[in-house]
Amino acid sequence: MSDHVFTHLRHTALAVPDFDKQLDFYTNHWGLSVTATDGDVTYLAAEGSPEQYVVRIRRAAEKRLDLISFGVTDSAAVDTVAEKLGRGGATLVTEPDRLQTPGGGYGFRFFDNEGRTIEVSADVAAREHRKVEVGEAIPVRLSHVVVNSADPEATVAFYEKHFGFKVSDILMHPRMGKMMWFLRTSRWHHSLAIARGPHPALHHASFELRGLDEYMRGTGRMLRSGVEKIWGPGRHLAGNNTFSYFLDPNGNTMEYTTELESLDEDTWHPHLYDFTQPEVSDQWGTANAMDEFVAAKSFNDPDKGLFIAPPV
């Protein structure tokens, strides 16, 4: 029986200074759809996902990661998680209550060990969604979120201890040691990954496309639109998923991916991969090299929202 506490990744929320350009990027280029807005906060859905929204953007003076949201089975699970976190010394940002965001539901927020705001929710109404068709190069769902950590060992331990995340694979460097941990909360290879970085920040958010053809069409659309490509297209070894990384208008890295591995959790054993080996970073050999430029973009700016709850 699985001891995963979370059922799945719901959405991520970003605060951005250049709100209008960010909204244009997500709707006219990236392929998300507006489901609700109040002017300063807009909720964006993936057409193939039952989640009410997969990204929320908020107009703000400073860029920050507002929160990452995960689902649990029911309202009783929400209460149980909140109680255990409180007993374990975590800081609750809000107590369990009815949610006022699209789809409603029941949930709460807390700070993780480095001060990121995490939301836990259940009973959120499913959105009317549709099957993404052949050749339609738009996101089906939010695949995973990767964060930078100044103390990744402690951050991995936090998510293992409190939520039953399992390590699927680890990337290492011969001189620098372990550099990235891929964590799963279901059979998907990872819904969260923790990367060693100079400061806590968003590393990237990744969006699943229908298949290889749609993934390549989406990648080509970004290139033709003049969106800055950071890395790709290629196929990682850990997770066996494809990757094309682009920079959004506010300097956050966004990824198109497809074919993320689904594991047999009863038989899976984590690998320790040396990412200086070219086939680890890119099995195909089609992507540009993982170099200092790519790494610097992935570090992102230091998160201004640590241990500061977002206003919405």
CATH class of the largest domain: Alpha Beta
- Can you tell me the CATH architecture of the largest domain? Roll
Number of helices: 6
Q: Round the mean pLDDT to the nearest integer and report it.
A: 97
The helix/strand series, from N terminus to C terminus, equals EHEEEEHEEEEHEEEEHEEEEHH
- Please state the structural category: alpha/beta
Summarize the structure in words.
By secondary structure, the chain is an alpha/beta fold. Helices cover 20% and strands 36% of the residues. The chain starts with 7 loop residues before the first strand and ends in a 13-residue tail after the last helix. The mean pLDDT is 97.
In summary, what is this structure?
This is Catechol 2,3-dioxygenase-like lactoylglutathione lyase family enzyme. The chain has 312 residues and is α/β, with parallel strands linked by helices.
Question: Which SSEs are present, and which pair or pack?
Answer:
Elements: E1 8-16, H1 19-30, E2 33-37, E3 41-45, E4 55-59, E5 64-71, H2 75-87, E6 92-98, E7 106-111, E8 117-122, E9 141-149, H3 152-163, E10 166-173, E11 177-184, E12 192-196, E13 201-208, H4 212-224, E14 229-235, E15 242-247, E16 253-257, E17 271-274, H5 278-281, H6 292-299
Organism: Nocardia fluminea
Keywords: Dioxygenase, Lyase, Oxidoreductase
Domain VOC: 8-123, 141-259
Jot down its keywords.
312 residues; 2,3-Dihydroxybiphenyl 1,2-Dioxygenase, domain 1; 9-stranded mixed beta sheet; 2 domains; alpha/beta; globular; 17 strands; oxidoreductase
